[in-house]
């Protein structure tokens, strides 16, 4: 009898250990990435969602001295769209808006119908502000030709982070 109790306890302990190795599941879809998205998963859009473009994994990679570049993807949900303008500002440590971005580079990005465009494969969209600091966030507003304006609070990462050190944007 004593042996069977040991087996039961050992079996229960093994079950707990093995259960910890199971694949985690969630009822909420999400992108396991460092950046942020603007809405539903591209492959399962919400009915009635009239956005023409979806933003995926958007973030800023800082290169130092208050400058950085946008990294992420734009996906057209139907007809072709084009990014026309980028604006925004970093968020300071106290939660207030920092100095607005000076944006340069490839702020016009054409996204063909039902396609995905990776921003770092396009001419670089550079953002500059003395308040742009790795580890904080920034508000970024992307304005598209169809009238969509996507406003996101995005993370700011240093280019020395191993996950982003190999990103070499087009110039």
Properties at a glance:
171 residues; mainly beta; nine-stranded mixed β-sheet; 1 helix; extended
Brief sketch in words of this structure:
With 171 residues, this protein is mostly beta strands.
Number of helical runs? 1
Which bin fits the share of residues in helices?
Answer: 10-25%
Q: Average the pLDDT over all residues and give the rounded result.
A: 83
Largest sheet: 9 strands, mixed
β-sheet strand percentage: 35-45%
Shape field = extended
Distance between the termini: 75 Å
H/E topology pattern = HEEEEEEEEE
Let me know the number of strands: 9
Question: What ranges have pLDDT less than 50 throughout 5 or more consecutive residues?
Answer: 42-48
Helix and strand content put the structural class at: mainly beta
Q: Rg to the nearest angstrom?
A: 22 Å
What do you see in this structure?
With 171 residues, the protein is mainly beta. 11% of the residues lie in helices and 37% in strands. It has 1 helix and 9 strands; from the N terminus they run αβββββββββ. Strands 1, 2, 3, 4, 5, 6, 7, 8 and 9 form a 9-stranded mixed β-sheet that branches. About 4% of the residues have low confidence.
Secondary structure layout plus pairing:
Layout (H helix, E strand, L loop, with lengths): L1 H19 L32 E12 L2 E10 L4 E10 L11 E4 L3 E3 L4 E3 L6 E4 L8 E8 L4 E10 L13
Parallel strand pairs: 1-9
Antiparallel strand pairs: 1-2, 2-6, 2-7, 3-5, 3-8, 4-7, 8-9
């Amino acid at each position: 009898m004593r042996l069977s109790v040991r087996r039961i306890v050992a079996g229960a302990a093994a079950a707990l250990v093995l259960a910890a190795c199971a694949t985690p599941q969630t009822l909420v879809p999400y992108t396991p990435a460092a950046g942020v998205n603007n809405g539903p998963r591209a492959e399962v859009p919400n009915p009635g969602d009239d956005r023409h473009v979806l933003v995926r994994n958007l973030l800023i990679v800082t290169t130092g001295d208050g400058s950085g570049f946008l990294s992420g993807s734009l996906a057209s949900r139907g007809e072709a769209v084009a990014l026309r303008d980028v604006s925004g500002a970093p968020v300071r440590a106290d939660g207030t808006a920092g100095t607005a971005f000076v944006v340069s580079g490839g702020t016009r990005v054409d996204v063909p119908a039902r396609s995905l465009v990776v921003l770092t494969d396009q001419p670089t969209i550079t953002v500059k502000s003395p308040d742009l600091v790795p580890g904080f966030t920034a508000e970024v507003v992307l304005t598209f030709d169809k009238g969509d304006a996507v406003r996101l609070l995005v993370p700011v990462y240093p280019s020395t982070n191993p996950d982003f050190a190999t990103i070499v944007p087009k110039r």
